[in-house]
Amino acid sequence: MELMNSSWFQPPTLLLTGIPGLEAVQIWISIPLCITYLIALLGNSTILFIIKTTSRLHEPQYIFLSMLAATHVGLSLSTLPTVLSVFLLNHREIEFYFCLTQMFFIHTFSSMESAILLAMAFDRFVAIHNPLHYTVVLTYSQIMGMGLAAMIRGVVLMVPLPILLKRLPFCKDVILSHCYCYHPDVMKLACGPITVNIIYGLSLVLCSFGVDSMFTVISYSLILKTVLGIASKDGQLKALNTCVSHIFTVCIFYVLLIVLALIHSLKTKQIRFAVHKIFKSRKNLLT
Hints:
This protein has helices at 2-5, 26-53, 60-89, 96-129, 134-137, 140-158, 160-166, 183-187, 195-228, 233-241, 244-265, 268-286; strands at 13-15, 93-95. With 287 residues, it is mainly α. The protein has one domain (13-286): Rhodopsin 7-helix transmembrane proteins (Rhopdopsin 7-helix transmembrane proteins, Up-down Bundle), CATH 1.20.1070.
């Protein structure tokens, strides 16, 4: 209770949230979570190993895929400690500076993933629109440069987030809405002026995810235009088949971003009540 009633410029710890009202069954929820993380880590690590050890896969398309897998590994490792701590051990406390560090890595890897998805869209555009110059346009050094640019952009854009939060006083509450640290979630706990934080957060969304999504759509619009210009139906299908998996990945990425934004904009109490009601009804069916 002392943690809840005190006032501090910076709280020593924050409290993560699992699923309120389902604390008794969180250990069971941790089982599918553990399996999901295990599949994600093993799957992406396998992709990295296969691409690295198979020389014929050292092509632009697969190098970009390995970059995407590496960001997925980084993102999984960024959220893994606190998610399992909450659901498996029921340990909700997280140190303030560790929270800011986790937040930085989550947003950085997300920005990197967005940039790599854009690079993969450009890769497919070059492969379909100008296949004869594919290896000339996308050389190994240029691919590495694009990957390095994605990483630098992510780091540079996200470094101000914890710095801007660190300058704020926190005297409202210490309970976060998630089992990991997320910038809007931490920001709403501050009792100081957060106008700069809001403006910078919106600028980040527009300058990174907004720009990336716009150019990704443009790339696939040009790809579609090129495909429709192919005379044979077989040629059109063959060209589109090389893009299906990437289009699916892009859709998943941006749909998840939209869903997360909607969760933050809606009343979280209503969402939690609905989730609690579903679990409660299932529990009644089993008993």
